[in-house]
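Limitations

Structures in this collection are predictions, not experimental determinations, and the ligand pose is part of the prediction. Treat each record accordingly. The example that follows, with 2-oxoadipic acid as the small molecule, is included so readers can see exactly what is and is not provided: the inputs are given verbatim, and the output is the predicted complex.
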Amino acid sequence: MEVKQVDLKHLAEKIESHQTTGQDMDKVTIDNPSLTVEEAYEIQKMCIDYKEERGDQMVGWKMGLTSKAKQVSVGVDEPIYGRLTQSMELADPVLPLENLIHPRVEPEIAFVLKKELSGEDVTPRDVWMATECIFPAIEVIDSRYKNFSFTLVDVIADNASSTKFILGDQAFSPYHTAWDEMGVAMFRNGELLHSGTGAAVLGHPVRSVAMLAKMLSREGQTIKPGQVILVGGFTEAVDVSDGDHIEVRYDQLGSLNLRVEG
Ligand code: OOG
Ligand code: MG
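Predicted complex:
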């Protein structure tokens, strides 16, 4: 049997162009069933390299599928990571739908580090010692795949569906509250759709940052000071369309809002 050599560069170019133009595509595993998780992360990195060649810049990382609710909703049952760039950060609480396919939003928090985190053995304690502050955050995800349907390998190659994110204006001390007990509630046009607590994320959101450091260490990478880390959605994501207003209420942190505009 002839073994087909997968052209990772070609796949990265294709995915990156769909990320940029906002057109959906078939899953990459349809034509490349032998693609591995490692190769998918290579593709993810190449896509970011293309964005950086055009002037974008990496600003951090996101963990995805760190809560059961998220895993069940997309049918993939292990955590993944993705890369965040400057152009993904919304400066204002407005989400333009231009170049998006089928966006969904989810309630998150983001850690920002003051010290580098690296290695296979990173513990929650190491994460606390390295954390400068924590922000309430909303992530906008938008799978490039048709019907928002994918396998583990597909979603990794598509940068864990990363699209946009917004952080609150107010930063909080890591010691402000017990982050696992913190409740969040997400409203769309005034209707409560989902609620949960920080414990939904791997038992405690700090574990998500530790897990990211470990996953990156396998690739010889680290989390750098100043980088933003989204820990993963606390609840299922919700679809948004033109005119929607999203509000996420966080216990002890206030609220974040997002207005969706065609
Ligand atoms: C994958 C990205 C998951 C999260 O917070 O769990 C994610 C997806 O659901 O498309 O961002
Ligand atoms: Mg997310």
